[in-house]
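Worked example

This section walks through a single chain of length 176. The input is the sequence exactly as stored; nothing has been trimmed or padded.
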Amino acid sequence: MSKTVFLDRDGTIIVDKHYLQNPDDVELIPDAGLSLACLNRAGYQIIVVSNQSGVGRGVFTEMDVMLVNARIDDLIFDYGARIDGYYYCPHDPDESFKCNCRKPADGLYRQALSKFQIDLSQSWMIGDKMSDINFALELGITPILVKTGYGKEVQDWCGLVSESIREATLVILDGK
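Given that input, the structure is written out below as tokens.
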């Protein structure tokens, strides 16, 4: 069983550019690459869980999502970091069909569990939206809200809040 950090993608490790589809537009949040490398060195596996409703809305394709994720891998490689898995919900939340993979539902976790040994008692979630926080609470793991992306707009969360992924990483590494 491995300790794991689940991460939201847009607004948490990369700058949220609203329906990002072009890999050339990927921009890491400051210190994201270094933060991921520190988590890797501390023995955490890193799993990205992301809602990508642009697929279901026809704004971009699943191939676009994979190319953006590959670009993230390229950028963090320079820091000696790696992401162990990417899982995303491609569904349009406005459709009548209700999937079990859109955060905060636990479907993305269940997909990851089919590949990874995950010790929830030693796992964390870092994200910039309440859907990320609620995803963590659904799993019974500790969430950290970052103020990058949409996190700066969240006013009603009284749990752990960090300015960025860098500060969230320090919290995790300090075991707080």
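What to look for: Residues 62-77 form the longest helix (16 residues).
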